[in-house]
Amino acid sequence: MSRTMRKAALFAGASLFWLPSLAMAQSVPVQPEPEVATGLEEVIVTAQRREERLQDVPVAVTAFSARELDRRQITDVRALTENAPSITFTATPYGNNDLILAIRGVAPGGVLPNVDQAVGTYVDGLYYARPEGSNFAMVDVASAEVLRGPQGTLFGRNTIGGALNITTNKPSYDFGGSLKLGYGNYNAITATGIVNLPLVDDKLAARLVYSHVEHEGYGYNPTLRSDVADQNDDFLRASVRADISPDLRVDLSFDHYSGSNHQPLWVLNSYQAGLSAAMYAPYVAASESRVSQAGYNPVNDSEVYDFTGTITAQLGSATLKSISAYRNVNFEGASDLDGTPIPTADVRIFELDGHQVSQELQLTGTAFADRLNWTTGAYYFREQIRNSPITRVPTAIQDNTIRPDNESMSVFAQLSYEILPRLRLTGGVRAVKDTRGMTYTPARFAVAGAALVAEPPATAVTPAACPFTAIGLNEAPGSCLYTPADIEFNTVPFTVGLDYRLPGDGLLFAKFSKGFRSGGFQQASGTTAAFYRPFDEESVASYEAGAKLTFFDNRLRMGLSGYFSTFEDIQQNAILSASPVIIAVLNSGTAEIYGGEFEATALLGDLRLNASLGLIHPEFTEGPYKGSEIPTVAKTTYSFSADYPIELEAGRLDLHADYNSRSEVFFLNTVSITGTGPVPLTDFQRRSISQEGYGLLNAQLSFTFANAPITLAAYGKNLTDEYFAARSGSFAAANFNSIVVGSPRTYGVSLHYAF
User: Fold this and answer.
1) pLDDT value of position 20
2) Secondary structure of 358-415 in the HEC alphabet?
3) Vertex 659, ends 706 and 220: CA angle to 5°?
4) Strand 176-184 relative to strand 188-200: parallel, antiparallel, unpaired?
5) Phi, psi of 454 (to 5 degrees)
6) Are 355 and 326 in contact (CB under 8 A)?
7) What is the structure's pLDDT at 588?
8) Which helix (H) or strand (E) holds 256?
9) E strands in 579-682
10) 3-state class (DSSP) for residue 288
11) What's the pLDDT score for residue 479?
12) According to the model, what pLDDT value does residue 441 have?
């Protein structure tokens, strides 16, 4: 039996027998009485900045209610990406507190603060400019939406690939709450407590949420006798709702995320004898190894604070919403990127700290007997941040501090008008002005001799010449401070589309969107002028058409979409130096990406089935990367899930299983940029930066007692124990490479009590 057939058999068997599911929202007492299934429940989304039925929205969006998030064990953003088509994730070098997202093949090059994210993450309207802490935004969530394609009109911060729109549960005027405790292998401990407090009848309420997650390492370093890829995270949210009058509501929210974990499991998995330096040979990992040979095992610490204040006022037929937000990020960590004791490119310190402020005004309304829906508003954003990585290589130590100062201002409007019965025209536009500032403070130190030890003695480290001396960029003699003039990007993304409501419950739509991602300054870890040359903005033109259909008395719901996108001045990371590894962002010509998605939900009696499929064809059409694979793209993604409740006299048994798969992914370009031009990677080098296709099988079984608000559950993730890379290193040009190993099989039990 083939491996694929074995997986299918495992999936089918698990669906019928032991598969776990916790089928109740975290904060709502469970009602175990059997429900009469008359059809699929309605899904409400805010993809167009107003509440609408999913089937009425002419946008390719995957939406998950709180119940569905619980069924599929979606407790972080990474799990969310595994359950939607055409979206992939890449781990960061520093741990699981954040991740890099790609939708429809569009992704940023990394987590450095000089580059904007390609997929915007919004939590209650707050845009996460940096991914730090974003993986843990899924605590006490009411709904989560994955919007695919450019969203530059209503979601204005560089959402060239798409957006994650997450809405948390708000305080209500009923006392209640819940407590959930869990334990699993790797000594995993989870605890989530929620309490909802009505303070003044129908006027003032508060909600408190606390969550703790920890587990021992998924890998081990025998030399240092320490865990690798462990986890210890805490999350707190406090929110207040005040209904000052029937027409005026104020929502305030504060949350704090704190994470502390050792670095991910980096292993040296690729080595080509005769072409790689022989000193790496002793550290090549065994097949499917979870043993780390890294020379040091740093702890990565994250502290993130978020404040959001939302005022909603009814002004006759219009609604005014003000969203004020502040976010503070403080990260200090490090990473041994090659997974060996050799200082090939050890990030000894990676500090990122700073804050962002934003203010958004939205005014929405209807007119002409609801034939016209309109939204208009303004947005201001400013981010001031410091990033200071200290990198150790055999002959040098470099401290390269940058201080980006990014500002964005925009005004926007979108109208939808029913020009004929059932036929609606939509047009939207946003005028954006982005200003980028930068201060560089680099310093380079020479190391006497090519020491192959983890740390040279202090006497061997001497200051090198300021790298700006040779290129005339010093602001003062002997200074390594450089503040170039600000750069500006003025862009007008827009969208125009038509949709037609079919008789019954269905929608056909077609649209054209223009999106962008701002340019900026380089990280500039090099020592020549080329490393300080800013990169320009990236733009996309996207054509899309789709359908949303409902059949059999709302027991079958389907969504289909197809798209064709062209990219100009596409931003790509280029490795411009092999020793040390120096990466710059280049505008690399043009690219075309086309594909399609299919999603379906069916209710067969009490059995609920979900399926999705995403197909992507990406291609560089001009520029130095023509012929290269586009990084961070799985050309095929698909998923299946099944839910089946069994009513018993003692309570309800819920069975759940899901399987998600992605095809081969290249983590980096398969063409190197050299001084003599682009050079294709060899077959060995290509394999070293890729992960072949794999799938993950997850399951959950839960039992809710009939006479008590208690649910017991057993769960399993990655039940087939797939061994896969979540990221690769940047050493392919030297004919060796490393990977970050993904999470192994995990399983455990949980108890949920609602009151």
Assistant:
1) 35
2) EEEEEEEEEECCCCEEEEEEEEEEEEEEEEEEEEEECCEEEEEEECCEEEEEEEEEEE
3) 100
4) antiparallel
5) -65, -35
6) yes
7) 87
8) strand 248-262
9) 581-587, 590-604, 607-622, 636-648, 651-662, 665-666, 671-674, 677-680
10) coil
11) 57
12) 80
Q: Which residues are 221's β-sheet partners?
A: 226
d(CA 636, CA 98): 24
Residue identified by tokens 């699929």 is 40
Q: What is the pLDDT of residue 82?
A: 80
- Percentages helix, strand, coil for the chain (3-state, rounded to 5) are 5, 55, 35
Given a contact cutoff of 8 angstroms between Cβ atoms, the answer to whether 21 and 713 are in contact is yes
Name which of 243, 251, 334 is nearest 294 in CA terms: 334
Distance CA 650, CA 156 (A): 51
Buried b (16+ CB within 10 A) or exposed e, 550-589: beeebbbbbbbbbbebbbbbbbbbbbbeeebbbbbbbbbb
Task: Please name which of 379, 232, 355 lies closest in space to residue 305, comparing C-alpha atoms.
Answer: 355
**CA angle, 191 as apex, 724 and 210 as ends, to 5°?**
110
Q: How large is the C-alpha radius of gyration of the chain?
A: 26
Q: Which residues of 47-83 are buried (b: 16+ CB within 10 A; e: fewer)?
A: bbbbebebbebbbbbbbbbbebbbbbbbbbbbbbbbb
At 104, phi and psi to the nearest 5? Answer: 55, 40
Distance (Å, whole) CA 447 – CA 500: 68
Rounded CA gap, 750 and 179, in Å? 10
Contact 89, 101 (CB under 8 A): yes
**pLDDT for the residue 34:** 44
CA-nearest of 334, 352, 260 to 296 is 334
* ∠ CA 546-550-552, rounded to 5°: 150
**Block mean pLDDT (10 aa), the chain, length 755:** 42 35 36 55 85 89 87 80 84 75 78 82 90 76 90 81 91 96 97 97 97 95 94 95 97 95 94 92 94 91 95 95 96 91 86 94 94 96 91 74 92 96 96 93 65 57 58 51 89 95 93 92 72 88 96 94 94 70 82 96 95 95 91 93 95 95 93 82 95 96 96 96 94 93 96 96
Q: Which two three-digit tokens encode residue 394?
A: 């055999």
Residue 597 CA to residue 611 CA, distance in Å, equals 11
3-state secondary structure 671-686: EEEECCEEEECCHHHH
The whole-angstrom separation of Cα 540 and Cα 563 is 12
Output the pLDDT for position 99.
Answer: 73
Question: Looking at residue 277, what DSSP letter applies?
Answer: -
d(CA 709, CA 177): 11
* Distances from the Cα of 530 to the Cα of 113, 527, 533, 534, angstroms: 19, 8, 6, 9
Question: What's the CA gap between 324 and 30, in Å, rounded?
Answer: 35
User: What amino acid is encoded at 338 in this protein?
Assistant: D
Q: What is the phi/psi pair of residue 530, to 5°? A: -60, -30
User: pLDDT value at position 25?
Assistant: 35
